[in-house]
Fold these 3 entries.
Entry 1:
Amino acid sequence: MVEVDNSLLGKEFLEMAFDRCIKCSTCKYGYKNFEKICPSGEKFLFESYWASGRIRIIRGVLSGDLEWSDDLKDPIFACTTCGACMDSCQAPHADYIVDMIEALRELAVRHIGPADKQEFLVSRCEENCNPYGKENSDNEELKKIYNLPDKAEWVYFIGCTSNYRQQSLRDATLRFLKKTGIDFTLIDEHCCTSPMIRTGQVSIVKEYMQYNIDQIQKAGAKKVITSCAGCYRTLIKDFEKFGEHYDFEVFHSLELVKQLLDEGKLKFKSSYNKTVTYHDPCHLGRHMGIYELPREIYKQIPGLHLVEMKRNRNFAWCCGAGGGVKIGYPEWSVEISRDRLAEAKETGASIVTSTCPFCKTNLSDANEKFDFEFQILDLMEILDQLDIEILN
Amino acid sequence: MTETKQRNIYEKVSKEEVEETLIAIFGSESVTKKAVDLYPYSYDMTECEAHMPDFIVLPENVDQLVKLVNFCNTNALPIVPYISGNNVGGLTIPENGGIIVDFGKKMNMILHVNENMMYALLEPGVTFGQLQKHLEENYPHLRYSYPFAPPYAGVVGNAILSGMNNMSCKLGSMGDSINGLEVITADGTIARIGSCFYGEDKSDKDSWWSRYPMPDLMGLFINWQGMTGLVTKCAVQLWPNPPIKKTYLAVVFGLTDIAAVMREVGRTEVVDDISAVSIEVIKMTVELPEPIKKEGEPDFAALFPISAKTENQMRAKKEILDLTINKLKDQGIKVILADVDEFSKLFNLRVRCYLDLPAALLSLVEYSGLTWFGSYAPTHKIEELIPKVNALFLKYKLPPFIYMKIMKYSHYGIFRPIIRYKKFQEDEKVHKLLTEITEVCIKEGCIPYKTPVWMTEKMRKHINPGWLKLFEKVKKCMDPNNIFNPGRWNT
Amino acid sequence: MLSIQKGEDLLSISLNNILSYRKEEQDFVNLVLDWDKNIIIEVQDFYPVEIIFKGNQIKFKTKDFDKKIHLRIKMDLKTLLDLANSRIGPISAVLKGRLKIKGIIRIGTLLKFMKIVLKTMKMVAENPNTNYFEQNRRTR
């Protein structure tokens, strides 16, 4: 049996690669609907680019059958970690496939480094606490604008993509939260560490996680709300995986919206007379099991006609941004989104909506590059366009 | 790890020249020689020894393959066909290195479905999941027969290697359901075999309706494990899809009594399929990876899917089945018949994976290794085979996993002891067990299909010299430079 | 919160599957909690299995049964399936000799057992879903 370095955070997942997976290839297509689901497999085709192939790469590098070289970078890093393979696989290791790929990346980073340009995710964080390299915002300015206290029951964890790329989403969420009247504030955020975890660059992860926990605790909050699917997944699943404990609850903004609707506290005073299709973000859908919640919200918006893409819910085609692919393989990343928008076009929708700023970013980039003429909007942005009344 | 058997394949031509030629034929994105890309193809789920190929190519069309074959034949380079790598027999492991032709990624079109004469014309890379989806969406009145295999197993591979599927009690070997083949032989000739043979250049897509009655060249490619040429098209028969389907489960108490149950039910000619498994296998499905048979539990469970055009026909078939079961009970056999829909809801829905084919079966995908002695078997020998093989499993402290089928209304059977194991830890033990099982079963007349090389070596000792001589002659005639999957059947 | 033993024999596996169907349901939890009874079910041709209700736990035994057994029921597989699928009622089954209560009949225990097991079996049998692959997945 091969010895795996104890210092690797993903050690147990690397060991799993030897005891599981017969390469039955069920991971390659949607289980039972047999739709295309794996962006990297469909693009690069060779066995090494599918989940079962990556599990074999783990065996190869650990047993010494495969020598480390730059040739290994593409098969290891050209994967959005969308989790479609996890959903299709029916074997006992199914739920751990993405963990195995991330562990392989952690190992690869040690030997050959990350994929091209992915190292900037860490270097930018080290300079500015966010992977976009924007000057760090401690959010004090936003607190002033929205008249927020230093301490509150809730913290709105904005996330780097919302704060530095999709500010309209951030602002729409802030306005919504103000309307609800909940006692919330903002913190000086470091990146949630999702980009680092997905690309195996884990050196700063625990430090950043602890920093964010400390900031939330400093604000006295017992509840954290975020409008980013990636931050949501990371705060709930990855913090636990990395052994970072906290005593607050974490919510996605749509959970609050749904709660208000269920309690009859959210009333729509205007209509949204458009045909809309919902793109399931991987980090909310497959990774966290949330599919129906957003749909139940959209269906309650007056005038909104919700239509489904052919591949929806657990079969949803990834937007192509995740897993470090947006920065490492930018052209391919947008092509993946292009395929998703082509699917959206078949529904007759004029709006593509989602509940993740990173999905919004990549879908918007594809929308522009390939002239699709959709409006790409987050749920919070749609709500922001409506006249809504919230009873306190 | 992988030491490719020395064959000096780059004697006539350098590896660089090979790479250049392959890129010129297939395009640079469809050719790889990177070790990281080759590695997943170098071994499969079995305990068969790993061997690295030299190249992987992804063909898109027959013209590319003709160029490849001509080049390889001139330079004595091995060609190994690959669809999904899901054969449990090491068939796609390149024993002598060379070029793996991965049909699964680009040559995977369902070319035509003829509703009138009921067949589907397929490229080699078509999988069961794909065919099932296509038929359900476009031809719901037609059906194909699906194996106890995951959706991504190849239809053509299953057919030309005599697979056994969920209509095999009715149909027999899937090799019998082939209407036609298009092949490329060693000299680069494209030949169409079967009724599609008319037409000098391209065939009429509606001409693939029969294997007979011309001299049967199809046998030169069925069960030859890719040793005689490349199959580039295959027409498989489809069948009417009756609207009424019901599956019955029989549990049998008594280690060998299942044999009589299977044979007698097979002879009724009312069931589409008979598949029986050790009771431990039922438990494997519900996440008990190493189950033990408890005292008082039945020894085997068998599934009898029945299809019918009308309710009356279903009732009549059920009546015959009941009469047969009752007759067996009168003979002292302890057998209980139940509706599997009702049973599975109460027991655990996961057991439905055996019905809902093609499916990923937890009993097979539990670990990292899977191997078996999959054989065609004389049905009168099953009573002797079961206790001997059962004892071998227990000797090696593994839960017995015997899978059996009745084929073509009891003309012959399938006997398949299956071993799931952790590769890299248990290979040696598993190989020993499999070797003992092989020896026991061959002695009783079982004939393994999809044979790894070490198994055919054992078989050769029992095969009549006349067959071996003819086999070698045909192989030499079809493949004088031994480029097609060399090493298989110890060639 | 109920804890139901997984079971390693066919009947225990089935009982776990049946009883787990309602283990999150408060009414069911209230029925089972602290009932503290030992029931033996014999399915003809199979083997007897003891169901032990204790506290918040349900366990199964196929040998070394407890000395005190509160109820013994015997039936064949056909009767079990007929009961689950409402083709026969329990009273009818008893009257026809297809369902036998062995030893002293404790009516209260019997009726409660029917509520716990038979009613749940019927609910399981009635559920139209047969998609096994949508069960027990973290990602669903």
Entry 2:
Amino acid sequence: MYFLFKQNPVVVAGSVIAVGSLLLALLSRFIVDPNLWQVENLGQRLCWNNPAFSWPVSNVYNCSGASYPLGTDSYGRNVLQMIILAIPLDLEISLTIVILATIVGVALGSLAAYAGGKIDELILRITDVFFALPALVLAIVVMVVLGRTLQNLTIAVLITWWPYYVRLIRSQVLSEKERPYVEALRSTGASPLRILFLHILPNTIYPVIVQMTLDIGGVILTFSALMFLGFSPNPLLPELGNLVTDGISYVFTAPWLIIFPGLTIVIIVLGFNLLGDGIRDILDPRLRR
Amino acid sequence: MLEVEDLRVVFHTYAGEVKALDGVNLTLNRREILGLVGESGCGKSVTALAIAGLLPENASANGQIILGGRNLLALSREEMRQARLKDIAVVFQDPTTYLNPVFQIGFQITEALISDRQIYERQMINQRLQELEEDQRRGDRDSQQIEMDRAKLQHSVESGKLSRGEAKGLARQIALEYLKLVQLPEPERIFKMYPFELSGGMRQRAMIAMALVRRPKVLLADEISTALDVTVQAQILALLRELRDRIDASIILVTHDLAVVSEVCDRVAVMYAGNVVEVAELRELFANPLHPYTQGLMAAVPRPDRSSVKLQSIKGSVPDLIYPPTGCRFHPRCPKAFASCPSTKPPLIAVQKEHGVECLLYG
Amino acid sequence: MTDFLVETKDVYKWFPIKGGLLGKTVGYVKAVEGVSLGVKKGETVGLVGESGCGKTTVARLILRLLDTTKGQLYFDGTDITKLKGRKLKPFRRKMQIVFQDPYASLDPRQTVGSALTEPMRINQIVRTRGEAYDEAKRLIRVVGLNPDHLARFPHEFSGGQRQRIAIARALAVEPQFVMLDEPTSSLDVSVQAQILELLKDLQKEFDLTYLFISHNLSVIRYMCRRIMVMYLGAIVEEADTLGVYERPMHPYTYALLAAAPIPDPDKRKGTPVLQGDVPSPINIPSGCRFRTRCQFATSLCAGTEPELEANEAGHLVRCYYRIDFLSKTVAERPMMRHESA
């Protein structure tokens, strides 16, 4: 399998980016003081002093003093430092949501698949209701009801995300349940729980992992969008979407404000997407055998 | 009719080079049913695919497959596609996966005829004229009707080309003829049905009709009865026997089942690990199997008509074709192997007229 | 009757077909209808039939992998029809199954050793992990493989070897009864011979009782002493091997034998006896279920379905007539027991 991995440049690129961003997230507190985002430096707002590039925009304010490789934002903070602080935050929220969604998905999905009948119907209908509601609208409603905190933001996105996992895992378990080796296990007297956790779930894990990897990017985009729409708990919060929101008003005077955080979002999401796609590609021909 | 000479096929896979065919030699005569029999991994399906030009991307084929004077392996992709349209037809094992579920049976059968009209026009018209003649001779239909049909056709011939509508109509008539030929009841109804509405046996017949409608010279049937119940299989095999007399094609029947071979084939080629190890006329093969593998195979098959005392199995298992045995590929499992076997690959030795063996015991 | 190790009494299995918006039951797949069979200790009984005949469902019912719609199941005299959970567990280990598909019957993520030791642990046959492993080593040798295969995964083995592993797994719980559901149908002929011989040896060595299910008449003839022919969910004929193969009584049995090809060029078949397709268990014909395809059917056959009755000692058939298939003459059988009922 490693052979295939190396052969696929897409996966390699994706995993480099993904692993890179995770590493950066872990090490960020050693690179940048985690409290820096609260420090405003209004004397150096919206300036750029990186000699490597000059913006084809009029009135670029030149910073004085320290060097700001990616310029400063509207609070005078170093954009590069903010991005480095934002990456762990985004990834942490995203991973939390994805992992929690998977757990809920496994619990409800397996229950539905194994119990069948009315319980299955009930879970399916509930899931359908959530599917029918547009995700962003639902998240907005939750935010309005619960209030603007980071925790509630996580809850809001989680609520819109779990149905996918329930469906996915339910269908995986359903099909795996009928395989002969499960029947063989039942005939040796294995209990349903044993079969589910020791046998069925390990065998169905791959599509779920792929989905999780792909969703990391998707979740980041979703709550970035929410922040953009005004549900950010704190405008200073070092979160990629927040930074972009900040920069929208200055698109023509300080384009680096949107470009760099935006680019970071794109790269991270792309990285995880490529990773997920690549994993799927690697696994697919193997399964086809 | 069809000559396969020294066919070698290698699959390039991640795990290694699979030497699937190691110099296969076959002759297919006109209007005969040749059985290609062997166990899994012997290369019988690969041989059929090679002849049909349907090998996957990672396969490389060497040698000669001569049909109508041309070496099929030397043709370009497009030329091979044309050859497949006109001369070679394949019927596969599982009609469910090889029939498109969203199109009617009739549509699928006529599809090839209509889409490549230039190739088929002349053929279709001639075919139809021939069939009309036959109908007249057999007194099947009202002769006035026949005359009308014939006049219509003549008109199309004179006007130079068939319109799409005419082609469709013609193709439909031909398709119905063939649906009747494969003994499907109520061909008009079946024409409009979808694959899921038919049973397994009927689907298989439809696939055979689809293959024959193009009047191929060679029909490759790859395990066509394996997935069927025994009573349905009996019907399909009887159908094949009848068809052989009525159509002008040669059939290669690929199977692992010696009993099927015995029911239907004129000549048999036994394959093992990428080689044809024995080839003979049917009766001769069963009466006098020469190759140790053939003998082992026959001793391992239980029969429904007598009680066997003990089944003899062949020791060992099918070899890994990435690292095949040297010399004769059967020697590790052969009860009669001797000193030269691991080092010398046996050539095809003609023990009698029409009975060849690739075994050092005989030459 | 108690010398049957496994017995079914008048077992039915109907699968409901749901349709419409509210999921109402619109029909039934009548997979098994009124099957009463018994397997004596040490016997090998064959269950033969084509697709849709219900033989696989019968296997699942006997093993309690499915619940019956009606009827009783007995193991060694005990009624196990309604047992569940912990009460069923001790019976579960006495009945094991070997499936047709050696690729799908093993968990691909489990090593062979683990696949063998797990049933032992579930049923508390062994005390320690070491004991389990020793047992696994013994079992793997018994089926003709060697102990260093225990660390490998199923996909590293050939079909025949996987089937051996499946057999070893079935033996791991020391069963008395093994259900063999088409165990060699997906194997090559030469491998099939090895596995069949292995099964015969194991039967002698471990005093096993077999129910052998197959559509392959040659294999059934080779392995079984007593045979039951199923059609559309019911047993239509039951007799010992020679009785079924040399003196078949039911027209369907005769048709099966007439259709089974023989590897002998001198014994080619003529026109197939049975035309048309195997019907679906959703619409079973009234009266005798075979009458729609039977060349000897009469109006009597369209009335009530005949019972499975003994025509001679030990040879049961579900048909109103005594038929000589060679001359195609039919004699009406004297009506038997059900008249007086």
Entry 3:
Amino acid sequence: MKRGNWIAGMLLIMLAVSVWFGSAGFPPESSFFPRVISVVIIVLTAIMLIETKAVKDETVFEWAAANYPRTGKVFVLTAFYSFLLGYFGFIFLTPIALLAIMLVMEKGNYGTKIIASVLTTASIYLVFEVLLDVPLPAWSF
Amino acid sequence: MFELLLQGFATVLQPQVLGILIAGTVGGIIIGALPGLTATMGVALLTPLTFTMPPATGLVMLCGIYCGAIYGGSIAAILIRTPGTPAAAATVIDGYALAQKGQAGKALGISAFASFFGGIVSASALTFIAPQLAKLALSFSSPEYFAMAMLGLSIVSAISGDQVTKGLISACIGLLVGMVGMDMLNGVPRFTFGQVDMLNGISFIPVLIGLFAVAEAFRTTEGLMKRQVHDFSLSGVLPTMADIKRCFKTMVKGSVIGTTIGIIPATGGDIAAFISYGEAKRSSPNGDKFGTGELEGIAAPESANNGATGGALIPLLTLGIPGDAVTAIFLGALMLQGLRPGPLLFKDNADLVYSIFAGMFIANIVFLLCGLFAIKYFAKVINIPKPILTPIIFILCVVGAYSINNSMFDLLIMMIFGVLGYLMQKYKFPVSPIVLALILGPMAESEFRRSLMLSQGSYDIFITRPICLLLLSVTMISVIGAYLKQKKREKSEGKALETSR
């Protein structure tokens, strides 16, 4: 936790400094608020870091535990799905992505998972495209 | 007023609107009944759906989800000792104990009735108090709006729990995110890095979905539990007249407590439920039986947590101040429809406001009917395995974020904020302040600058107007009070630690 707070603190200070200098080119009325906030961030970060000294340290991520690789894989799959959605379209990609994420979460039960993937895709398509007339990404090749 | 209310009912009772309200309420019950899915997550996830609907239909659906989810939380609390939502945490105590005695049906029945009672009382309060408050707020001008936005932002310290400093930092991040895009008053692009996608600012729906739904789904993935199948046999769900008579006083008190606490920003159903439970235990002649499966022990928290739903909408609709995460998302949904909550909403869109009121009443009736006659089907959703449910949530997040603007950029924003939200929760940075600041920040900035234009650059305008001065003073007291409270708590915790050594 302590190390995390220190890293967060450094990132926040970098953000605040970037905002301060990033707003240098704005007219005075447009740069006033960003600059005030960048100063407030620096002050609050300093308070947080001082408070961190008194905090009892605790482990936030136990990398050896099986859960984190699984969470990482799910993130990568969701990110890929989001990225590829515009190319392969909702109908083609969604059942594949759903099945893949379900299998990363838990192996086995293939039949149930295939049915759940197809039914979910069909239900979402029905609600968004057919009932609400909200366009979903289509195959673009 | 009654004419407008009747008009509101006429709107909500149209077959299409009613169908969507019922679907929303049923969806809310399912979301609430599933441990790990909260009312906030449900409302965040389904807000994009409202974009293509007429404003009344979309907002009424959100009311249904909200009321349904708060009630639904009690189903898992009673049946599997796991509150479906934080608001149902107090219901576990007597609800589960009664279920263990083989009277799960009775517990679910009184829970549905008490939730309905609380919901109706709070919807009535919303209908009759909100317009009066809005009338008062009609005298507001830019300085008062600025002060009100600051008051809304000061809630950050209260919703940050024991992490006030980190909550304030989160709020600052939200304020910065709210500044991305063209300056509203002079059109200067700020922090857009030459990206056309960023000129209109960062859409708050992908941010909401990322922070609440995606981050929560990551957490569920991390702590995935083994499959558990529960077998429920439910009978005697309909409460008897004797049961209702016995719990009547408790329900009245719970509803008043819930509605009052709901009005106070930064509180919510969970706090209301515990206070109501404590009060019922203190004042009931059966107080010593609480914890062993006492009916009043279920009626008290359930009437209070649903009582808080209407109460929470009062400051949002009248002043534009969202008191918690769910109402912050409501605020987002209203803005998505091009509406600005506050006194003018009552003047310019009275029909819509009264449709929301009518929707609250009908949502409560819908979940009562579901709770009394279809409970055995809702009880089954608890058995949906997480490895199937969580991927569906991920896909819904992606579709929801995309469908607002049909933009891949929004998906990127959702993923970034999903990871940010997950890491923030890990390192105990409260996430709700980001949303609050993202929504209220632009209002605070523009009204501040407009005020200075009005006063030709003089800051006196903020202290010479009584309402503005009052609101700013309350803001100061709220921030300082929360900070001192945290220090006091830390001190007493430190002393307790030393004593235990």
